Predict the structure.
Amino acid sequence: MQSIIDKIQLCSNLQELEDIRLAILGKKGKLTKKFAELKNLDESEKKIVASKLNKEKEEFNKAYTKKLKDLEDENLNIKMKENVFNFEYFDVKSSTGALHPISQTMHKIIEYFVSLNFSIESGPLIEDDFHNFEALNLPKSHPARDMQDTFYFKDKRLLRTHTSPVQIRTMLSQKPPIRTIAPGAVFRRDFDLTHTPMFHQIEGLVVDNGHNVSFANLKNVLNEFLLYMFGDVKIRFRPSFFPFTEPSAEVDISCVFCKGDGCRVCKGTGWLEVLGCGVVDPNVFKFVSYENVSGYAFGLGIERFAMLLYKVPDLRSMYEGDLRLLEQFR
């Protein structure tokens, strides 16, 4: 057995060690054969031989196990040296990352309204018809539903088309006064230069029974907000229609590209539409069992604001992950 143990000590790799194990303890190994021959011995001799064989097997296993661990450790050290992390591959001048322009824009908007004591509310991305349409004064027969190409599930649920359902859920769970914004992702079946199937909105809602909740108050809030976002721009309110507000208005700013002179982006008008707003329709308050209150609401697209702030002509480029574009927003 000593000669075998010496061979084990001289092994230089795992394969050599495995060959010795098979030669000794394999199906046709020397010790295996000797153990098999025990049946041919008488009881007195069998005990003596078995004791000797067990001792040899124990000595072999001890030497084998120690050598196996040594060789495995040696192989591991070799692999670790081969795969060592080489910091020389990295440029010491490499720059840090930054928030995506859409995230930057959303944070800037949220900061403004939080400073005006607006709370932040959120809701589910998968909505039901009541919260997404009906409670917002959009019954099933309402033609305005055609304005929003909706993703429906087989169980009649849907991906929310705006963050307005959050306003309904907030009013159902809270009593006035309410002063809140609802930022988040929304979904519509649309894809072109200025639309993507998934985009982000922030909608605001103020409800109270005081005299400060009026269209005049709404105009003042939005005027100050747009000056904060775009600097020295002209602002105008145009009468419009939204099922959940009455009266309603769309808000334009003078074109940030041509300063109001007229260009391709503003289609020669000198104006760019940026958000919609209005006084909450009384029918909406009926759905949430509010009485003797008034309120106003507004909503805007984050991507639209990001495109105007950062002069990005194609909305789809915001989602292509092109580092040449994204590196400009560090």
Remarks:
- The mean pLDDT is 86.
- The longest helix spans residues 43-82.
